[in-house]
Each structure stands twice: as C-alpha cells, then as structure tokens.
Design a protein that fits this description.
Layout lengths: L1 H13 L5 H11 L8 H24 L8 H9 L1
Helix pairs in contact: 1-3, 3-4
InterPro entries: GLTP_sf (IPR036497), Glycolipid_transfer_prot_dom (IPR014830)
Protein name: Glycolipid transfer protein domain-containing protein
GO molecular function: lipid transfer activity
Amino acid sequence: MEYVAKVGNLVEASKRFATLENIVDADVGNGTVKKQRSPSPDLHRVRQGLDLVRALFEQFLSSKIWDFRSSPFKIEVYTF
C-alpha cells in the first residue's frame, strides 16, 4: 500500500511538472527535498523498489535454482 500512495503522489506531481527533473528541481528550490509527502522522496523510494524488483528478477533469470527464501537477502546488498 505504501507504494500505491507514493505513485499516486507522483501522478499528481506529473500534472504540474513536465519531467522528473523538474519535480526534483522544484523540491530543491523550495527546500522540500526531505519533507514527507514531497514528490522527491516518493520518487526516490519508488525507484529503490523498482531497482529491487529488477535485481530480484535478474537473479532469478540468471540462476538455475530459484530460491525465493534466500534471494531477497542477496539482492538487498546490490540495491542499497
């Protein structure tokens, strides 16, 4: 549910800004980069989540044995 809210906030921000760079620039200019419910932290968190999912699938595809129990622990080292 956390990501649904963050993506929703980014959708709202996309109505005001043309690019992701514009969103970040506006937050930097307003001094709200670290403020909760600001688009920049939401963008960062969603990107981390997508990077984690990508790394998880890359590991699954490159492995002959798919072990769902141990993979997230190995991937966390690569994404964070």
